[in-house]
Amino acid sequence: MAGPLGLPPQPSEQEFVSCLRNGLILCNTINKIQPGAVPKVVYNPSICTSWDIQPLPAYQHFENLRNFLVAVEELKLPSFEASDLERDTLDSGSVAKIVDCILALKSNHEWRQYAMDSLVRVLADHMFNSKENIDQYLLKSWNQGEKDPIKLFIKIMSGSLQEPQELRTSLLNIGVEFTSLQTQLENDFAQLGTQIRGASAAAHRYHQAVKENRHLYNMLQELRGNIRVFCRIRPMFHEEAKCTIDYIGSDGSLMVIDPAKPQNARKIFQFNKVFGPTATQDEVYRDTQDLIRSVMDGYNACIFAYGQTGSGKTHTMCGPSNRSNEDMGINYMALNDLFQISSIREDVKYQIRVQMVEVYNEQVRDLLILGSLTGLLILKYKSTLEIRSCSSNGGLSLPDASMHLVQSTADVLDLMKLGEKNRAFSSTAMNERSSRSHSMLTVHVHGDDISDSATRSCLHLVDLAGSERVDKSETTGDGLKEAQHVNKSLSCLGDVITALAQKNPHIPYRNSKLTQLLQNSLGGNAKILMFAHVSPEADSYGETISTLKFAQRASTVELGAAHLNKESSEVGELKEQIDGLKKALAIKEAEKATPPQKMKENVPNLDGSKQITEQNPPRPRRLSIEDPAAPKNGTVNNPDERKMLKPPISGLNRRLSSDGSMREKKRQEFNAAVSHIHSKFSEGETFKENVLCDQVEIQDSADEKASLDDENRRGIVATEAFHQCSPGTCDPSCCSQLPKMESGSQVHLHQKTSDPAAILDESVTAPDEISLVAKTQTRSSGINASRRGYHIRKSPQSTGKFIHGSQRR
Ligand SMILES: Nc1ncnc2c1ncn2[C@@H]1O[C@H](COP(=O)(O)OP(=O)(O)OP(=O)(O)O)[C@@H](O)[C@H]1O
């Protein structure tokens, strides 16, 4: 390592030590092992040709030796003392130290050599394996047996020295490419931004257009009228039977004839549409469909089927009992459509839930109670549901009826099957499978829109029970009771329709469960579609006319614009809060008002329904002309009240009774009609069931109107209603001028006025309602009855209508 030392081949220890004494060999050696270990080696080149001949001056010895020993210390190798080299006579211990140090230097050198070799080998292997930075030349030399790692490493390193330049060039290229890519990307982003802005503006415009479209669509519906009436005629059961349908016009007109009396004039009715016996379920539904879309837009709708027993109501609403997919009724098809619309409208998330109830014998029952009715379920099924005011209960009139979330038409089918299974049916002479209850399938639709507003609407699908003449249906016992309840509730429905048609301030919704349930819809909050069903057979002529008249009257009802039940989610939450606060307040007030021991009995009715009943006790039916608020002396001071009691007089009527001589004749006719009524009352209950299609039309006479107007001007005329009372409770002087009633009669027509010369002045067009308004003259001198005129047109069926409806009539 240090080159030739000028020592003999077998030097003595003394010779060896003296050769090391000036420190030059030691310093050079350690510098070979660790380059720079002794930064400055002192030597004299001129004299230093041979280690032993020309010794260095002492200070040089000392400095080299000291530097060497410091370097040995740093390398953590065994060391010795400088004095060990100075001694002339070396003892074995000091020589051993020097030798140990030299051997340690040797081993260190060898170890470093070995480590370097290994490192180079590993590097070379790695580079070779990865085939990177090894040019063909290197590979070739390797393959040709140049296995000296150092040489190879040096070659590699020298090769790599050229690489940074190449790398720098490629880096520059990459930088340029990157910049251009960045620019490209920025351009692309800018373009994308423009496109997104354009798309969002288009989406906004689209939503506006959809909104506008829905608005216009619903406006169109309003223009068509929020109550629409369709008539459907069932096919004849027997081809050879005589038919009452004479002509069906495509414009919705229908002409019927009485085959028993072909000489009689044909009757013409006008509806929005008439479906003949060949119309399919699909055709019928197609004209119903637009109503369903309105429900999805947030409007309430009500579709109900009306008609005599066996005329096809259940067929239209549910389909036949052994139905296939094509025969499905409106209920199924409507729900199917609701699902389809909800899947198309991606901007609104809809939730559809259904309830199904029936009104059976004036009790509301849940039809969707699951299969096996056991334990509590039986109790619940049997217990009747309470109808609540809709303002509380989140708009639910039957909060206790089970509510079912439906997500597919299959769910709907299952529920409908269950409902039909639970519904009351039985066989009558008129229909093998006759519904003995009104069924109501209510679909609640809740839509959450992307603009954070929500719609809540409901669709009532009502299959009414059929009106029936118990003599024809041959029902007795329970069946008779069912029929009576059905007839009564239909009569109440008729009253409501009449009151609505006449725009009466009081609509008698509370007279039956059916009308209570339909109150929200009929009260102008919904779009209504009525299907009037007709059996075409000749022996149903009476019922057909009655149904058609009812339907025609319904079509004259002017409902206000249906409300759009849409609100922002905030408004919804606030409403809920208000409901909660109202309930809390009601409880607090009830607690304050009620002594603690009575609290239990008077638990406040949170929905307010009871309070309403108490505040507004059901008013007597209009047959007995009611006005409990009217002053006893028979005068009505409020002109509005007078207007209310006295319906407008038609021009036709005016023309009819211009002749004063007719008045007396009319009075006689009226007396005859009332006597007829009395005799019919005495025949008892059965009669009431047999007079469904009877009618009385008592028409106003224009000349009487003229005379009344005249008297009104003079301020002496007042209007008073008839009222009804039990025999024995009325003042005989009040009714002395009326025809005497037979003993045992349940109902007593009684005029409240003290003036005996009451004149009837009211036209009644309702088949099941009669309003008799008495025009009373209160002149103290009395009145000549002949001055009053009334016109009664009485048909053979007329009298029954007079009493059709409630028992109180
Ligand atoms: N348009 C029609 N096409 C074919 N069959 C019909 C049609 N309408 C009714 N029917 C059939 O007439 C019969 C009586 O119909 P449905 O039971 O629907 O009458 P309904 O008015 O509901 O009677 P109810 O009031 O007694 O329940 C059923 O067998 C029914 O399938």
From TrEMBL:
Residues 1-110 form the Calponin-homology (CH) domain. Keywords: ATP-binding, Microtubule, Motor protein, Nucleotide-binding. Residues 226-557 form the Kinesin motor domain. One of its GO terms (molecular function) is microtubule motor activity. Pfam families: CH, Kinesin. Residues 589-666, 777-809 are annotated as: Disordered. GO terms for biological process: microtubule-based movement. ATP binds at G307, Q308, T309, G310, S311, G312, K313, T314. PROSITE patterns: CH, KINESIN_MOTOR_2. GO terms for cellular component: microtubule. Belongs to the TRAFAC class myosin-kinesin ATPase superfamily. Kinesin family. KIN-14 subfamily. This is Kinesin-like protein KIN-14A. It comes from Cocos nucifera.
